[in-house]
Amino acid sequence: MAAGPGLLWRAREYVDRSARQSPARLALGVFALVIAGITALLQMPFATADGEPAPLVDALFTATSATTVTGLVVVPTGEYWSGWGLAVILVAIKIGGLGVMTLASLLGMAVSRRIGLTQRLLVSSETKVTRLGEVGSLVRTVIITSTVLEVAIALVLFPRLLVHGEPPGTAAWHALFYAVSAFNNAGFVPTPEGLAPFVSDWWMLLPIIVGVFIGSLGFPVILNVAHHLRAPGRWSLHSKLTITTSVGLVVFGSVVVAAFEWTNPGTFQPLDGGGTILASLFAGVMPRSGGFSTVDVGQMHEGTWLLLDALMFVGGGSASTAGGIKVTTLAVMLLAIVAEGRGDRDVEAFGRRIPRETLQVAIAVGFISATIVLIASLLLLAMTGLTLDRVLFEVISAFATCGLSTGITADLPTPAKYVLVVLMFIGRTGTMTLAAALALRNRRRVIRYPEERPIIG
To answer: Which residue from 432, 420, 408, 429 is spatially nearest to 65, judged by alpha carbons?
Structure first.
């Protein structure tokens, strides 16, 4: 009788110790194990529509894309996989989304144990969890919060799918799938035609837009805003930076996409005014890591691709289901540029001073991420012979775990698919573990070298 609780206690102690001593190893190990398990399930005959086992590269790619909540596919999801296969993919999306928020919060708590009292209080005010021993409480809160939001989105989508002629059982299943995929920024669709038939349908697309946007904000922001819903002045600096930067990027992206695609006969031109506005808003939100599309991305102008590259590379909020370098990274670097232009010694926002160490981490994350994208792009250019614009789009989409594609993923050679698999894994686990590792490496030196300023520019 005591073996069960004892085993559970030892497992909890192991997780607690791993999160404290090696949070990066914990994140990498958990995600690798989940991907391996999902790959094995997708290779079972019951997972495919024709009953034939899926090739390893297709199963691994799909498992990685689902677990890292990316959305890139090498086979048509709604046609190739059976109902059981879609259920496995949905479970992988749910585990991946929960894992990202939970592990990112654990990394934040690990960092908070190694910084000063003031900063620790700021961190605890955002996460509402101050001790690594409260892992169970954190996980329960994340599960409850995400599930409530997903069910709410599904309940809004369900009647609309009924109106479109789907049977009640099918409508309920598709509503749930879209809701989970939207909140977790996964971009998977359960039907062959996807969301293209709903390109002008506000009732269908607006809940998905809201779900993707909220999911991209991150668990600390969602919880912090929920605790102080009627008092925005008490929101944490992280919440204020994440929300303002996210809204700004959505507005900017939507307006510029509309300007580029308004007269494009392959995308927006056939739509009426309301449909064009909705399609522009949808296209402005999805690069945050949503990955859904209502028009053929492959038919968009090259200028639009370049804009989407930039938006995907930034991604969403920290400790969220979104990928990219994160909006707070961009915000901190922009604030530093403004401070430098004004001649200010401190980087400030919303009445708070941002530590210099935070800027250093932001620069490191941005530079290393750009280097990874560069290396992966060179590899795919050598393997495929495709043009740079399409390769860069695919690489950034994989690294930022976004899922948008110009249509080349399924036709890539097998080695290139494995490159994208590695890229999705790095993009999901790499940025948060890198940021935590850099934040934890805080060496104190008694002797410091004399200061001398090199010439810049």
So the answer is: 420
Residue 349 CA to residue 443 CA, distance in Å, equals 27
The pLDDT of residue 123 is above 60: no
One-letter identity of residue 60: L
Separate counts of helices (H) and strands (E) for the chain:
17, 2
Strands 347-349 and 352-354: antiparallel
Distances (CA, A) of 320 to 253, 282, 308: 20, 19, 20
Predicted TM-score of the model (pTM): 0.87
Return the pLDDT at 118. Answer: 35
Task: Label residue 301 left, alpha or beta by phi (over 0 means left) and psi (-120 to 50 means alpha).
Answer: beta
Residues whose CB falls within 8 Å of the CB of residue 44, separated by 6 or more in sequence, listed in order: 53
Report whether 129 contacts 105 (CB < 8 A). yes
pLDDT in tens, 342-378: 988 889 999 899 988 888 888 988 998 999 999 999 9
Residue 246's nearest CA partner among 210, 206, 216 is 216
Question: In this structure, which amino acid lies at residue 432?
Answer: M
Q: Calculate the CA dihedral of residues 178, 96, 407, 264 and round it to 10 degrees.
A: 50
> What would you report as the CA-atom Rg of the chain, rounded to the nearest whole angstrom?
22
For residue 351, give every residue at least 6 positions away whose Cβ sits within 8 Å of its Cβ, in sequence order, or none: none
What does the pLDDT look like over 423-432, one tens digit per residue? 999 888 776 6
Structure-block tokens of residue 169 = 């059982």
Contact between 399 and 373 (Cβ < 8 Å): yes
Tokens representing 386 are 């495709």
